[in-house]
Amino acid sequence: MLIAIVAVEGSLLSSITGLVDLFWITSQALRRPPQAVPLPQQVGEGGASLPHFDTVILSAGGQDLRDPQGRRIAVDGALDEARSCDAALIAGMALGADGLPPDSDSVRHAADWFNQRQREGLLIGAACAGTFVLGQAGVLDGRRCTTTWWLHQTFKQRFPKAHPVWGTAVEEQDGIITTGGPLSWIDLALHVIKCLAGPEVAKLAADISVADSLPLPQLIYAPRGFINATDSLLLQAEQIVRHANPGLSAAELAVALNLSERTLHRRIKGITDESPKEFITRVRIETACVLLDVPGTSVKQVAQKCGYKDESSFRRAFIQLTGKTPAEYKRWSGARQSVS
């Protein structure tokens, strides 16, 4: 399988070489697994050959590039001369002096190239600010996607037809994969391996790389209430849920905001791609994360303060949004704070 990795002006060398290395490590692990590590079931069975990943680094004109620190990015060829591949990816880029992803000739060339590849049905993906290239390509129009949490609002403003989902780590729709964060090229690579070679090979790749095959949502890293502070309606709604009535329904929230349910749904969906019910749940869980950080606070107490009548409902909602149980999150967060 051939994976094309696209380099543009501003590309981070670490993300490009990291992708190359992770695909190579996966191929090596399949052929020479560490002692006592079995191959995934059905891999190579029945005479079938083992999956093998090759990579090629491409730029607009085929020339080597310099990363933001001046280090050379060695390129294997030009986009327009690339041979057929199984997937095409673009990873993180440095932000410009204006704090935004660059908009250069090489980025526009790459966007046109990705647009054509998507029309051909190729699996494509982007990590971190590389998602802006896919946004410029128009391939995210009408589709769920994600980007780095602090660029969420900028992304929405630049690509209003796309549907970025706040705080998620990985989104895939119609063969287009997006991930968020400068190191999310790891999540991107693992997801591509899963798509092309199956979940067992992806798990092997994660285990060999000492990476998490189930990435944690970005929202547990973002400042609590970050996205709500970007819009007055969300901020007002958050205050109602957080302080007045955390257990209220979507209909009750609409009444509190003097809006119809339909208008509330349209406005929240347009900002965060959440329904009002999902928004309420997120605010409750974000509040729970803050409370769980308080020493001596029990999970039962937090559940009650966040409007949950029973711990099981609270636990289900918490796992769905954070990928951890409340107790696991409390230990994880405590360990992070002790390091700092």
Q: Quick summary of this structure?
A:
The protein has helices spanning 13-31, 105-119, 131-137, 152-158, 185-197, 199-209, 232-244, 250-256, 261-272, 276-292, 299-305, 311-322, 326-339; strands at 2-6, 54-59, 65-66, 72-73, 77-78, 87-90, 123-127, 144-145, 163-164, 170-173, 176-179.
- Neighbour order of strands in the largest sheet: 5-2-1-6-7-11-10
Number of strands: 11
Shape: globular
Question: Could you give the order of the helices and strands?
Answer: EHEEEEEHEHEHEEEHHHHHHHHH
* Helix content range: 40-55%
Q: Could you tell me how far the N terminus lies from the C terminus, measured between alpha carbons in angstroms?
A: 42 Å
Number of helices: 13
Structural class assignment: alpha/beta
Structural Rg: 22 Å
What's the average pLDDT? 90
Major sheet summary line: 7 strands, mixed
Strand content: 5-15%
Low-confidence stretches: none
